[in-house]
Every structure is written in structure tokens, then in C-alpha cells.
Specification:
With about 180 residues, the chain is mostly helical. The chain has a domain of about 100 residues: Tetratricopeptide repeat domain (Serine Threonine Protein Phosphatase 5, Tetratricopeptide repeat), CATH 1.25.40. Helix content is about 80%, strand content about 0%. It is built from seven helices and no strands. Helix 5 packs antiparallel against helix 6. The longest helix has about 40 residues. It is elongated, with a radius of gyration of 21 Å.
Length: about 180
């Protein structure tokens, strides 16, 4: 009887510690995301020279690429309008089309959109799959834009799932990349 009481008290104490730690991690994450947004707002923006206007007839337009971009824009707008369930099919169509075109840049954008859509719907395990796809595409192509955000998103998903050990690993990667950038 005494052992059960002590065990119950320790379990409650640990739960309280985990809740407090989880709240602290969320606050840190929110602060880091705000900082990253401020610091990453067009740091390498360069403008085209004024006299170099390209004629419309010189631009080659690929209808598949246009459709892909339209899917991505539509999905992004749905997310902005707080409709992640409507954004999902748009990003999914964009992902399929990007994969068929072997366009890794757009494939990564679509995967990021799918992850965000699922995360906002509370489907964290599925969201992790797509955020991880962003990491895999980056590793495969050697181009690492979006990796920092993917680490943060994966950490957030694991936090929501209560897997704080895994969340901590990804928060560490996220913070390390923020410090290196």
C-alpha cells in the first residue's frame, strides 16, 4: 500500500515536471520561430537590373509547371484561410506532379505544405512523415532550405504526441541550425 502511494506521488510529480518542461519548450520554440522569421526575411535579396526586361515571347512556359505552381499557391491560400483539410489535396496533387516532373525544389515545397496541413489537422504522425520527406529531399539534393523549419515542425509534432525524448532531439537540431545560420 505504501509503495503504491509513493509510486503514485512520484508519477504525479514527474507528470508535473514534464508538463512544465513541455511548456518551456513551446515558449522557446515560439521565440526561436519569431527570431528566425525576422532574420530570414529576404537576407540575400538581390534585384534585377532595371534595363533587363525579358520579353514575354522569350519566356518558355511549361503547362505542367504552371499547373504545379497553381496547386502550390492554392494549397498555401487554403492554409492561410485556416482550411488545412482543403489544402491537403492541393499539396498532394502538387507533390505527385513534382515527382513526375522530377522537380525536387517544388517536391520539397509540396511536402512541406502537406506536413503543415496535416499538423494543423492534428494528424501528427502523418505530418512527421512529410516533414521528414523535406529532410530526405534536402539530403539527396544537397540544398538545405527549409531544413531548419522541418526540424522545428517535427519536434512540435513529437511534443504533441507526448514523445518528449524525440521532440528534444529535434529541438536540439533545430536550435543548432538556428545558431549556425
Amino acid at each position: 500500500m505504501v509503495g503504491a502511494t509513493v509510486g503514485g506521488l512520484l508519477a504525479r510529480q514527474r507528470r508535473g515536471e514534464l508538463t512544465r518542461l513541455n511548456d518551456q519548450l513551446r515558449q522557446i520554440n515560439a521565440a526561436l520561430r519569431r527570431q528566425a522569421k525576422i532574420e530570414s526575411y529576404a537576407p540575400t535579396l538581390s534585384y534585377a537590373p532595371v534595363g533587363s526586361k525579358i520579353q514575354e515571347s522569350d519566356v518558355i512556359v511549361d503547362p505542367q509547371k504552371e499547373r504545379l505552381i497553381a496547386y502550390l499557391r492554392s494549397g498555401k491560400n487554403q492554409l492561410r484561410n485556416q482550411a488545412p483539410d482543403k489544402a491537403f489535396p492541393e499539396f498532394k496533387a502538387a507533390l505527385d506532379l513534382a515527382q513526375s516532373l522530377s522537380d525536387h525544389v517544388e517536391e520539397k515545397k509540396a511536402a512541406r505544405g502537406l506536413g503543415a496541413s496535416l499538423q494543423r489537422q492534428g494528424k501528427y504522425k502523418e505530418a512527421i512523415k512529410y516533414h521528414s520527406m523535406v529532410l530526405n529531399i534536402s539530403k539527396m539534393t544537397g540544398e538545405d532550405s527549409g531544413v531548419t523549419e522541418a526540424y522545428g515542425a517535427i519536434a512540435d509534432c513529437y511534443t504533441e504526441l507526448g514523445e518528449l525524448e524525440k521532440a528534444g532531439e529535434f529541438y536540439d537540431k533545430y536550435i543548432a541550425r538556428l545558431q549556425n545560420d
